[in-house]
Each structure stands twice: as C-alpha cells, then as structure tokens.
Amino acid sequence: MRRFFGVTILAAVCLAFAGALMITVWHISGTQAPVDLPGLLAENLEASGVEHPITAVLLNFRSYDTLLEIGVLVIAGIAGISMAKTTSLEDPLLRTSDSLLYALQRWFVPLMLVLAGYLLWAGSDRPGGAFQAGAVLAASGVMMRLGGIPMEFLRPGVLLRLGLALGFSVFLLVAVASAMAGDAFLAYPEAFNKPLILVIETVLTFSIAMVLLALFVSAPVNGAEEPEEGERG
Amino acid sequence: MTLWLMAGLLFTPLAWAVLTLLLDFSKGRVVTWLGILVQVLVSLGLWAAVASDGGFLYLLGGWQAPLGIELRVDGLAVTFVLLTALVAAACGWHASIYLDPGKPWHRYFWPLFWFLWAGLNAVWLGGDLFNLYVGLELISLAAVGLVALGGQADALRAAIRYLMAALLGSLAYLLGVALIYGQFGTLSLAGVTELMNSGDVQSGLTFPLILMLLGLALKTALFPMHGWLPPAHGIARSPVSALLSALVVKASFYIAARLWLDLGGHLGGYVLAQLIGVLGSLAVIWGSWLAFRQVKLKQVVAYSSVAQIGYLFLLFPLTWGVTEAISQQAQQGITLQVVSHALAKAAMFLAAGNLIMSVGSNRVDALAGVSRFLPFSLFSFGLAGVSLMGLPPTGGFAAKWLLLQASLASGQWWWLGVLLAGGLLSAAYVFRVYRASFIEATDTDQFYHPSRSLEVIPMILALLSLGLGLVAEPVLSVMSLPFEGAGP
What transmembrane ranges does the database entry give (chain A) (predicted)? Predict the structure, then answer.
C-alpha cells in the first residue's frame, strides 16, 4: 500500500513537472525574444577571426566559459587519476586476444586519427572543433588500449599530468598575456585572432583526449586506502 | 590598477592549480603558500579599491554583454571574495600541516584546492547566468574530488552521493537558465532584470525561477534536500570539510539570493517566498536536533551546518513585498550570517580535526579528558559555537539582531520563534561536546599533541567571527555599496 502511494506521488510529481515545462515552453515559443543574440553574433563574426559562429562563441566571445569548462575537465581527470591503481596497465584481466578487435583496430585507428585532425581543422568554418576532435582521439586511444597496446604515458606520472595540464596552461597563458598587453583578460590582439585560436584548439584537442583516456584507464579503485579520521589505519 | 587586480584575481588560482598539479605534495605546499599570499593581497586590494571608488563591470575579452561575459565587481562580490581569501588561506595553511605528505594521493589536494578557489571567485563575480553555471560545476567537481581523495568505500559512497545531488541541482538550474534564455534571448542577469523593469516585454513565467531555485537549494542542502551533506562533510578531511561548509554551500545560496533579489519581484510570489522561509525554519530546528543526536564529532558539526544554512533562506520572505529599508536590513543580516557562519564553521571543523587527531577517535564520547590536553583547540571550538548560538558581541548575534528587526518591521513575527529556538538548540549541541570533554576518564592518558600552528589557525578564525559583530558597520557599508554600472 505504501509502495503504491509512493509510486502515485512520484508519478504525480513527474506529470506536474512535465506539464509545467510544456506550458512554459509553449508560452516561450509563442513570444519573440526581445534580444536578438544570433543577429548580434553574425554582425561581430568578422572580428572574431573564425568563420563558424559556434567556434567564435566558444573561443572568442565566451572564451572565459570555455577556459573554465576545460578546468572542469582537468578536475575530472585529476579526481580520476587520484584513485588510480598504478599497476592497472599490466592487469592480465584486461588483455584480450580477440582477432576481430585486432582487425578492426588495424583499419580504424589510422582512420580515426585522420578524422580527429579533420574535425579540428573543420572547426574554423563548419561544425567541429577541439571537443569533437578530442573525443574521437580519445576513442581511438580506448581502442588501442583494449587491443593491449601499451601506452606508458597513461601511467599516473609526470607525463600524464603534463598532458592533462597542457591545453589549459596554453589557454591561460594567452589569457594572461592579453591582460599584460593592457587589454582585458582573454582579449586576443586583433591581428593574431585566427592563429591564436588555432593553437588553442590544437592543444585543447590533445588535452581533452588525455583527460577522457585517463578516466578510462584509471577506472580501477585505489587498493591502498586512507582510513577515516580518527580510525586507526 | 583595478585591471591588474582583476587579472591577478582570476589568473592566480587557475595558474596555481596547473603549477601544483605538476609538483608533489611538499613542493606544492611551498608554492601554495606563495599563491595564498598573492591571492590574499589581491583580494584585499580589490576590496579596498571598490570600497573607495565603488563597483564596476569587467568585460572579459573586451566583449560587452549579451555577446560576451561581464563580471559584476560590486561591494557584495568583493566582500565574498575577501571572505573566501581569508577562509581558504586558513584552510590551505591548516591542510599543509595536517595532511600526511607521505600519501601519494595527497599531491592532488593542491590542484583541486586551487580549482575550488577559482570556481568560488567565478561565482562571486559572475553576472552571466551560464557563466555562473560553469562556476558551480567547477566548485562541485573540485569539492567531490576533495571528498573522495584517496578515501575508502565510505568516502567514495559519500562522494558519489554528493556528486549525484550536485549534478541534479546543476541540471535543474541549467534548465531554468535555458528557459530564461529562450524567453529573453540574453544570458546576462543584469540584461534580463533591465528588460523586466522596463516593462516593455511580457512578464515571464515563474516556472524557470522555481526550477533554478530548486536546483540551487538542493546544492545548498536546504531541508528536506540535505541528505547528501552530512556524510560528505563528515567524512572528508577536516580542512576539506571546513572549505565545504564555510564556502562551497554558500556559492549556490549566493546565486539563489542574487536571482531572487533581481528577478523575485517580477517572477516570485508571496506563497513561494513563505514556503522557502518555512523550509529554512524547519532546517534550523531539524538540523539542530539531529546535530544534538550525533555520535561522531564531525557529524555534529556537519548537521549544525544544515541548521545554520536554514537561517539564510529567511532572506526570501524578508525581502519579498517589503519596503526598501526592510529589504536592505534583511540583506545585511543574511550577509553577516553568511560571513560569520563561514568563519565560525571553518574554525569549528579545523578545531574538530585537531581534537580528533589528538584523541585518535571521531566519537564525541571519546573526547573525555581532552580539556586538560588540548584546551586551546577546545576553546576555539567553543568560541565558534558562541557565534553560532548568536550571543553578543559575535557576528552571529549582529546577524540575528538584524533579521529579528526585519521580521518585526515587516510584520512577519512568526520567524522570531525560529531565530530564538535555533539559538537555544545550537547551545545544546555545543555544550554537549563540552560536557563530554570535561569528563575525567581515568584510563585514557594517551593524547597526541598536534603542532602549535594547527591550533592557532582555528583560533584566529574563531576570533574573527567573534570580532565581526564589533566591526559589522564598515563591513556592511562596503557590502551595500550602490552598484555604479560604469566600466573601469
């Protein structure tokens, strides 16, 4: 009986939520937004240095958001590797000898690497960019890892940490260099818009792939643990 | 000058996060001390600049809102930036001695600590709804990482629970932001407020505001959504618990308060305001009662946070549909409550960490006899408790006095009972800890003595919270500086 009431209340809450959401969306879709942001964006696209509006928003107009979002990814990477077991790379349980996987790997990995490069380049004038390219790069890394290809740099050592930090550091350096030059934080100098955005995109791709791959590899939980405060370990 | 201060404020925590990621714990500690010094100086400088010249807007990347992101550097924001600098400096200093450098995972403490600090500054200064969301994410993930750091199954369980609550809260907030953007076409909070005040646009719907407030209340652990807080704050290392209770939960509350003060007049209503006030009151009573019942010392302090957070939500009824003067009084009271609770709770958690370290157990009844060995830490714990109870001359007293006046002036006498009962109940759980520590147990003489610095830090924080009541006037005058809106 209690269970029945629980389910009924839950369903009622969900229905009320969906109803309120629908009414709100209906109301909003019927009215014209007083500020035309896409129009404003199109007017300023020229000054951003890239031709694709999404890349312009992510790396120029709202680059502060992107900088902090990369920070969020780095945090996720840090939290992941802080729990990593250092021996997991040699874990025999992870070794597979699936011939289908090997065959796929031979075909797909080079193709995916090329695709990642293409996505990165495409970001300047059509959909693509660092996040997509990084995801594809990480996926090819996952495939190599499943196939048992040793990737020493993924061990929680200085190389991994350098890789995690690289994209974020370059982005941050550009930000502070522009502040030093007398402009605001993250204001790129007019002449270098495009090359700077390209450099940032490239290192970001690398670091995003590193974060995702590190999270995949360091999934096992730490064996040596810290006891709670006040409990003898 | 202010341009340099702003660049320093935004850049330092992020740069130090990267720097300490590449170093081990001991080297990271030295680097962190330097960073803390820079950050405290910059925050003080910015506070002084705003106190003398008034607030300003800082355009990131040189783009104006709504195209770019604006930071709102006003009196309230710099007050919290300075508070964060003080509390985080104390917690960082404490952690640098408290944490064991021999544990390999403690090297990740510093980068997470600095990212957390960066996120907090981003939230205090944020004037863009989506940018505030990013700041919240930065804070939540860093906080979850700190709770889970090298922990056992219990710590991981608490961290995952915390992560789920934080993500759900973020998503609800984000959905609200998306709806607001859909309606107004801008993400700038000031822009939306201006549109509503101008009256040219059709007034919005309440649902997006409710969604955002709901998500933020979940992240602030408002009753009855507080279930995730005590396990996470209780099981983290003490300097981490101090950061979480003192600053992290305040960030989501701060956004909720800013939303309410800007949009609440148009989108809110009497019933919504009263409902939030009632939930806050229930949090005060229920949280204090649970704090009184806890067996473990840090759980007592964690549940006390649930109760103290409850007071903050009285802001909503006390600023809705009242005169400007009463609203101002309530805002000042709540700001003082945030500041004094941050200082007192950080002091309490750090002192609790020292006590636990000393007796080697986290139970309240294990404190028997500790008063002879660690009087200094126990005294800090008590001083912080005095501020929580709201006795004069503490900051807690000044805060409750202002809230009391605001409730009476607005005719909402029913909040008086909560303010009084909350004070009495907090006295009950603080004295329970004291009673346990004065019992003379004959068989336990083995006390470990933490280093002097560990004991000094909570004392400084507790004294600051005690003295806040005496210097409330200058603090409040900067906090309520009118926002100029002009560029630097």
Answer: 66-84, 104-123, 129-146, 158-181, 196-217
